[in-house]
Amino acid sequence: MIKPSCRALLISCCLFWMNVVNGWASLRPGFATEDATKRHLNRLQSTNNSHYFKAWSAVDNIHLTRFGVGTFKGDATDAIDHNYVASLGLSLESGVINMVDTALSYRQSRSLSVIATVLNHTPRETVFITSKLGKIPPQSIPSEGQAFLTKTLGLIPQKDFIATKYMKGRMWVSLHPAALNHSLQFTREQLKLETIDAIYLHSAVKLAFSVYKTRAAVMVAFAKAIDFLEYARTQNWIRYYGITSSEDEGVNAALGSEYHIHLEELTSIAQAASARHGNPRHGLRMVMFYFSLRLHSGSSARNQQVQGQAVTAFEAMQRLDIVPIPIRLMDPDRKRTKTCENIPELASLSDFERRLYLSASAVADRGVAVIGQGTPSHVSSNLKLMQLPLLPLSEISTCLKLNLAG
After folding, report:
1. From CA 134, how far away is CA 182, in angstroms rounded?
2. I want to staple 274 with a disulfide (CB 3.0 to 4.6 A). Which of 23, 229, 279, 393 is the partner?
């Protein structure tokens, strides 16, 4: 005899998964491919925009644009949704952007639905979609909130997850495989995609320490999370994965600091997980991080080690075959950019445009820079910058008086 409380829980779980499965039935198949992105590139040859693309061996030679577009900013309103639909549509139609980044926690998950709307009018195989897991906003779980995490997913507060502030309420943070699986299925359903091209563990290092406290426990949590992501690859839910880092954690943290992460160590964990799941190669192929010209200059930038050699984050990713995804490219201050006024390309730019152009040029040959384009006017402004020739790293280093290492 099943106890009434257990029966209620069983019915609740069945109803939840029935809804999920029904949602899966309408998911759009496909993912970004080398052939489709290359054909798209060939169509741009006559427009002189082909230099915006680069084939990355890390993601099976998919051609990615030098710039991607993010969907973080803005309130959770219909008006902002409308702006994003218009700006994302223009971005993809321009032909010089084919990467779109989002997250479960962005704008109360409304950015996911916005992207789904835009993709209805875009060939799926030409667009590279990335999202993030680790933060669980309230709109992604049933009304019982935290009780769902404990009763349905079986997580233990302070051991597997913690609550944190989120907008006017709170959300939950967890790298537990059950939480990641729930969030991934919700993300796929909202995007209406069978396969997401890449998933990041969201601000993973600091969040992991907030839950697991010690480095040893954090690395165990990372290993379990990566193991789940390798499993997700076998199910065709995702193709690749990575981590994100804010300004003082992960690949941006000083070597030896509490929140520092060794990419070589992570790739070793990923390779072991991929072998367990029968994947010929691990899926840790992308790292998203706040980019700062100051932070990534000088000897302090060599905060990674690969085969015993001190290297920069960019160099480490190149050696480990990982695509760098720099974000928040607004580092040079006004005083510093004035030293670059003699560069002809900067003469007609506003201060904002000048700062973005310098940072974007500094990373353009080394990664895919994600920029914000929340309105059609943002698209027009950024497209103007994209028409300019990229400045060599040596020229940027000279004018800014910075030693921009590898």
Report:
1. 10
2. 279
